[in-house]
Amino acid sequence: MHRILSVSELAGSRDDPALLGVSWVGRDAPAGFGTTGLPFQHIVAAQLGRGGAGPAEAWFGALAGREGFAHDVHFRCDAHLLFGVITLAEGDCAGDAGATPLQRASQQAYESLFRVLAEEGYPHLWRVWNYLDDINGTTAGLERYRQFNIGRHQAFANADRLQGCTIPAASALGVAGGPLSIAFLAARAPCIPLENPRQLSAYRYPADYGPRSPTFSRAALARLPGQEWLFVSGTASIVGHLTVHHGDPAAQTREIVANLEALLAEASRVSTGPAYRLDALSGRAYVRHPEHLAAVQAELVRALGAEAPIVYVHADVCRADLLVELEAQACHLFV
Ligand code: 3EB
Question: Which pLDDT score, from 0 to 100, does residue 55 have?
């Protein structure tokens, strides 16, 4: 279960045995959280429109969690679900003629993650949140997001996880400094990856977008006892494989809503439960330029409702021409 918590609620929840982990948007981690304690993803970015930081997003399991640290991955798990965070400094990963430090770090992070899934017995990767510094910057002649994609793709290939049914929902965003940070949810049972009929599958993008395609599905449907979860990957103003509405944040946001509607229709078709609706989503909106916040927010309020629990974050989207991206989730409870 996913909940948005204020700083004081977070402090009150930290001893909750069902708490699996937390992600936090802000320049600094809240006092008492960070490198120790529970799995904690620190997204080094400003939150827009709410004083720069917080609230936290917390993932809860069903039963008392077990905690561990292995291969640089800090995790907690219950009987079904494992939430983990891995943080790697690129400087600790030597590049060479064949690979940049970021490419090495990305491959190593995913290989570590897969090792933990195998050792702990949660082989099915459902959802991944990736954050890297300077995502649109170029080093060694290649955009850093493309370097990340090469390393991620290689790790999935080495683990024999490139089939459509094993590719997780994901987001990949650029933040203002900090190490490579990857949080993930994995489980004992598989999820159902979904694709968007309006978009080419990202893992089939042509080579114009980099030497290796991005390894993510558009969404994932997953079952827990009494619950069905929908994880919606970072969704941008892309139709087919092309960015549309260059330079227009409101039009890009409307295209995102159209993409979400198509994806929710797909989820509703595959699910055995009630239809997934726009106004039942919670999520994060990543806005490249803070001055676009009002335009983006107006469109999302129109589509999702004024009460929609959307956290707005100042971050770089992985194509330089994308101004905004929305990721989301929804949960259906069965009685
Ligand atoms: C896109 O549709 C926009 O590399 O993991 C969205 C979600 C995007 C996830 C990723 C990238 C990723 O291509 C970018």
Answer: 76
The owner of tokens 């304690």 is: 37
Q: Where are the alpha helices (DSSP H) in 209-331?
A: 249-270, 293-304
Q: Is the pLDDT at 36 greater than 70, yes or no?
A: no
Which DSSP helix (H) or strand (E) runs through 20?
strand 19-25
pTM of the model: 0.97
pLDDT band at 305 (very low <50, low <70, confident <90, very high): very high
**Distance between Cα 181 and ligand 1 center (Å):** 16
End-to-end CA distance of the chain: 16
Mean pLDDT of the residues in the chain: 93
Domains of the chain are: 2-333 (3.30.1330.40)
Number of Cβ within a 10 Å radius of residue 288: 22
Q: Looking at residue 94, what is its pLDDT?
A: 78
Determine the Cα angle at 326 with ends 325 and 327, to 5°: 130
Catalytic residues: 325
Distance CA 192, CA 313 (A): 28
**What pLDDT, on a 0 to 100 scale, did the predictor assign at position 15?**
83
- The pairing of strands 56-60 and 66-70 is unpaired
Q: What is the mean pLDDT of residues 316-324?
A: 97
Could you read off the pLDDT of 115-145 as tens digits, one per residue?
999 999 999 999 999 999 999 999 999 999 9
CA of 215 from ligand 1 middle (Å) equals 8
Task: Decide whether any atom of ligand 1 lies within 6 Å of the 238 Cβ.
Answer: yes
Please tell me the distance between residue 173's alpha carbon and the centre of ligand 1 in angstroms: 8
Q: Is 204 exposed, middle or buried (0-12, 13-18, 19+ CB in 10 A)?
A: exposed
| pLDDT at 335 (0 to 100) | 66
**DSSP secondary structure of 65-94:** PEEEEETTEEEEE-SSEEEEEEEE-GGGS-
Q: Cis ω on the peptide bond leading into residue 55 (within 30° of 0)?
A: yes
Contact by Cβ (8 Å): 217, 193: yes
Residue 10 phi/psi, 5-degree rounding, is: -60, -45
